[in-house]
From TrEMBL:
Stretches the record annotates as Disordered: 179-220
Protein name: PadR family transcriptional regulator
Record-linked Pfam families: PadR, Vir_act_alpha_C
Comp. bias regions, Low complexity: 180-213
Domain of life of the source: Bacteria
Segments forming domain Transcription regulator PadR C-terminal: 93-170
Length: 220
């Protein structure tokens, strides 16, 4: 998330000082993305440089000497942010995705074991998240609503990851069964990739042609 856009959104409500902005940002996002004072102040300096915020002379309730208010350009930027969907570009490097991709193409790696260990960890995380969700109060406070929605996002992501792990396991087992049934030298291939490994097929494909990137796939 852009801290810049988050601060603009908060300042669209009322003028705030650095400490209040930090407090509001963390409270409204459930404390998931903590900020330090220096980060908030540096961002405000950049917003001021770009003509999106201005300083006011009065002090706020936290005793800050300066408060910041949106300029006309800043208000336009904040309103534009609400109306602009968040673009999903090329995903960032995900260690789990990289691990699985390498596991199914590396001889001797038991994909089933990799998947099972990850499934155990993801289920543990899901239980923790579900417990936090159950403990979250529902008294209508906006900060509690924000925290609840953040937890929902993490729970949905964990559930999706479990489904993806099930999918990997099923695909790996089908690939292993296919190799065994069609190749008289399946034993040799099996040495390169034990049960649940797709190393033979992955190596052959890699040798034939490089795989397209996700960005290239999305343009096809």
């Amino acid at each position: 998330m852009s801290v810049k856009q988050g601060l603009l959104a908060l300042l669209s409500v009322e003028p705030m000082g650095v400490a209040q902005l930090r407090k509001e940002f963390e409270g409204r996002t459930g404390g998931t993305w903590p900020l330090n004072i220096g980060q908030v102040y540096t961002t405000l300096q950049r917003l001021e440089r770009d003509g999106l915020v201005e300083r006011t002379d009065d002090a706020d309730g936290d005793g800050a000497i300066e408060r910041f208010v949106l300029s006309a350009a800043g208000r336009d930027a904040a309103e534009g942010w609400w109306l602009t969907p968040v673009r999903r570009g090329t995903p960032e490097r995900d260690e789990l995705v990289i691990k699985v991709a390498l596991a199914v193409t590396t001889p001797g790696v038991r994909v089933r074991d990799v998947v099972q260990r990850q499934r155990t960890e993801t289920m543990r995380s899901l239980r923790d998240l579900t417990r936090l969700k159950a403990d979250a109060t529902t008294d209508g406070r906006v900060d509690e609503l924000a925290w609840s929605l953040v937890l929902d996002n993490h729970i949905f992501a964990a559930e999706a990851e479990l489904r993806w792990l099930d999918h990997i396991e099923a695909r790996a087992e089908r690939a292993s069964a296919f190799q065994t049934s069609v190749s008289p030298t399946a034993g040799t291939a099996g040495t390169a990739g034990s049960a649940g490994s797709m190393s033979g097929r992955g190596s052959a494909r890699s040798a034939a042609s490089p795989s397209p990137t996700l960005g290239e796939r999305s343009t096809r």
